């Protein structure tokens, strides 16, 4: 579903992602862990070309996302093609980024109407179905400031799902939440995983990673130093840097 080939990303002179090659199969849950500054957010943002990169190729379900390799050369794709491809990718951030002056329902129905040409009725029906999925049907007509952090994040997930993406990316979705609200968001994510969504998740919730991940990927200094099943990574990591990192967070 996601294919990353020879991805290199620089911020000025700083080589932030180094020759990343990665394939993520449909329906799999990948959790990315690693020290702060190792490039986790940048990698996630490159997947939908929110962050441009200079070298390599990323495809989602076969469609290039930002750049494609032509005879070994990485070439940027046209904006129209990028915008089309981006519709297949939902992203959820640490900060929920809901539109404050729109109701919960409007937050969810806007993009499907403007980008997918859904009718208002269709978009609303879909939004209500998604609100039910995240347990917030009764909040459809309130403004975001009436919601707790956990509820806002569940709305943000519903909003991303409203575009009917093939892939969902999560960048520390629970890091801004009070501890008692972390569980409700992780629960929604587990449900999504169970339904077969392809997910890439940056998180510090190691329990969640153990329970929900098909694969855990350890990023260190822009390099994937280890990639394996959670049982292996958490119980018997091979790389000394993984051991060091886990000793600090577990
Ligand atoms: P992580 O999410 O693992 O904490 P990031 O992907 O945010 O790491 O950052 C990786 C590296 O890139 C860090 O050294 C960070 O300082 C640098 N970086 C991130 N964003 C920018 C930016 N917009 N401009 C310059 N450097 C950046
Ligand atoms: Mg980050």
From TrEMBL:
Keywords: Amino-acid transport, ATP-binding, Cell membrane, Membrane, Nucleotide-binding, Transport. One of its GO terms (molecular function) is ATP binding. It is a peripheral membrane protein. Residues 2-246 form the ABC transporter domain. It is found in: Cell membrane. CDD domains: ABC_HisP_GlnQ (cd03262). PROSITE patterns: ABC_TRANSPORTER_1, ABC_TRANSPORTER_2. GO terms for cellular component: plasma membrane. Belongs to the ABC transporter superfamily. This is Polar amino acid ABC transporter ATP-binding protein.
């Amino acid at each position: 579903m996601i294919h990353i080939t020879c991805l290199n990303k620089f911020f000025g002179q700083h080589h932030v992602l180094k020759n990343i090659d990665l394939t993520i199969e449909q329906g799999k849950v990948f959790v990315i862990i690693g020290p702060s500054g190792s490039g986790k957010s940048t990698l996630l943002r490159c997947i939908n070309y929110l962050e441009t990169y200079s070298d390599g190729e990323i495809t989602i379900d076969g469609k290039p996302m930002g750049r494609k390799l032509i005879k070994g050369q990485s070439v940027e794709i046209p904006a129209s093609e990028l915008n089309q491809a981006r519709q297949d990718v939902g992203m959820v951030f640490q900060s929920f980024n809901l539109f404050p002056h729109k109701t919960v329902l409007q937050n969810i129905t806007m993009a499907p109407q403007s980008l997918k040409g859904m009718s208002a009725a269709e978009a609303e029906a879909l939004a209500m179905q998604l609100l039910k999925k995240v347990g917030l049907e009764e909040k459809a007509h309130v403004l975001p400031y009436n919601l707790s952090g956990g509820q806002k994040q569940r709305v943000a997930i519903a909003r991303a799902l409203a575009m009917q993406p093939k892939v969902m990316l999560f960048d520390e979705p629970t890091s801004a939440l009070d501890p008692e609200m972390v569980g409700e968001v992780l629960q929604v994510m587990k449900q999504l995983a169970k339904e077969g969504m392809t997910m890439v998740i940056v998180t510090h919730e190691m329990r969640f990673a153990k329970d929900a991940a098909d694969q855990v990927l350890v990023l260190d200094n822009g390099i994937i130093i280890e990639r394996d099943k959670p049982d292996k990574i958490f119980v018997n990591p091979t790389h000394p840097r993984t051991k060091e990192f886990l000793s600090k967070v577990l």
